[in-house]
Amino acid sequence: MNIKLTTEQRNERSEQLDMLSTMDIIALMNEEDQKVPLAVKEALPQIERAIEVIVEKLAGGGRLFYVGAGTSGRLGILDAAECPPTFGTEKELVTAIIAGGSRAIFEAVEDAEDNEAAGKDEVRKQVSNRDVLVGIAASGKTPYVLGAVQEAKRIGVPTIGLSCNAYTLLSEAVDYPIEVSVGPEVVTGSTRLKAATAQKLVVNMISTATMIRLGKVYKNLMVNVQATNDKLRKRVIHIIMEATQVNEEVARRYCDMASGDARVAILMLQFQVDSSTVMQELRKSSGHFGQTREQLMALGNM
């Protein structure tokens, strides 16, 4: 079945784009961009199912892999790179694979996306059946991504596909399809625009909701952030203050006692226990903050 990709169609509203003033160009782009979150909203049930699978695999000791080419690959890299500083994760927990390798992060390696065998090879080298894989392709037909998904399925890895068209080859190939149909781009075929914005919103949801479910957020505070520089140390102190209602002096002292770990400092203050007790309970819960609080409550009631 030959389905015409909406991401490759011409946008009737921008047919005279080169004749518009600067203000008219950016106003048109802004109007088109407003369609993106509404398209993402339509895909929320698909996104929810994918996140549930990811949480299950990561809670069982697996890892999350993003695979993409070009802009899609770079968005996976961006999301993976931001998980350790935001959520205090090991850098291997969320990993991105891009067609063309590290060179493709900074420059276009256009032919790399057509290499289906290379996608399979990277999965063979890096992914195990404990993991979960998200293939990202605006078109939904990128050979590199399709190859990666096929190999992942062969070795028993749950697969998720994120595309910006309907009824795509990627959706057919994966266990959990996510289709965010954003329509034609302002510049025909330039999927670094609306399609990329949609993909960024979805990967934001995937990683953030996953980390919240894994207990790396308390209320809406980034309690897993580590004080590895002066800016982050100030952030940790502020988080401790917000979570426990102590003043800055006390928060700073407990931050030092906890070696810059906001989780430890908060729990020391909330339960009046020492750092070794908190660390012991965190290990028992695999670092899940909410579960650790429950364990410390139980200890206090014994």
TrEMBL record:
Catalysed reaction, written as an equation: N-acetyl-D-muramate 6-phosphate + H2O = N-acetyl-D-glucosamine 6-phosphate + (R)-lactate
Residues annotated as domain SIS: 54-216
Biological process according to GO: amino sugar catabolic process; N-acetylmuramic acid catabolic process; peptidoglycan turnover
Main EC class the enzyme belongs to: lyase
Keywords tagged on the record: Carbohydrate metabolism, Lyase
Pathway named in the protein's UniProt entry: Amino-sugar metabolism; N-acetylmuramate degradation
Enzyme Commission code: 4.2.1.126
Residues at the catalytic site: E82 (proton donor), E113
CDD domains named among the record's database cross-references: SIS_Etherase
SUPFAM superfamilies: SIS domain (SSF53697)
Cross-referenced InterPro entries: Etherase_MurQ (IPR005488), Glucokinase_regulatory_CS (IPR005486), MURQ/GCKR (IPR040190), SIS_dom (IPR001347), SIS_dom_sf (IPR046348)
GO MF entries: carbohydrate derivative binding; carbon-oxygen lyase activity; ether hydrolase activity
Pfam families cross-referenced by the UniProt entry: GKRP_SIS_N
Keyword Metal-binding (UniProt): no
Oligomeric form and interacting partners: Homodimer.
Function: Specifically catalyzes the cleavage of the D-lactyl ether substituent of MurNAc 6-phosphate, producing GlcNAc 6-phosphate and D-lactate.
Family: Belongs to the GCKR-like family. MurNAc-6-P etherase subfamily.
NCBIfam families: N-acetylmuramic acid 6-phosphate etherase (TIGR00274), PRK05441.1 (NF003915), PRK12570.1 (NF009222)
Misc. comment: A lyase-type mechanism (elimination/hydration) is suggested for the cleavage of the lactyl ether bond of MurNAc 6-phosphate, with the formation of an alpha,beta-unsaturated aldehyde intermediate with (E)-stereochemistry, followed by the syn addition of water to give product.
Protein known as: N-acetylmuramic acid 6-phosphate etherase
Biological source species: Paenibacillus ferrarius
